[in-house]
Amino acid sequence: LHDALPIYFKNQGATKVGVYTDGTVAKLLPMKMAVESLELAGVPYEIYDKTRVEPNQASCVLFIRLHLSRS
């Protein structure tokens, strides 16, 4: 499944995928596998690793602001 999702994003024409996680999960093997799959499929992505428990409106707004400030 971790290989199918990036291909789906690519086929749908995604220009950048947001990966939401927390600082602990960001360092684990599943995250490494997800990033490798995105890179192999050629799908641009940005990681936001400051979520707490589950993404909420405040953390999503912060991600958007950080992303827009980099654009």
* Count of helix runs: 3
The geometry reads as globular
Low-confidence stretches: none
The structural class is: mainly alpha
Oligomer: single chain
Question: Which series of helices and strands comes N to C?
Answer: HEHEH
Describe the structure.
With 71 residues, this protein is mainly α. It is 49% helix and 11% strand. The chain is built from three helices and two strands. It has helices spanning 4-11, 29-41, 57-70; strands at 17-20, 45-48. The protein has a two-stranded parallel ribbon. The longest helix is centred in the last third of the chain and has 14 residues, at 57-70. It is globular and about 30 Å long. The model has no long low-confidence stretch (mean pLDDT 87).
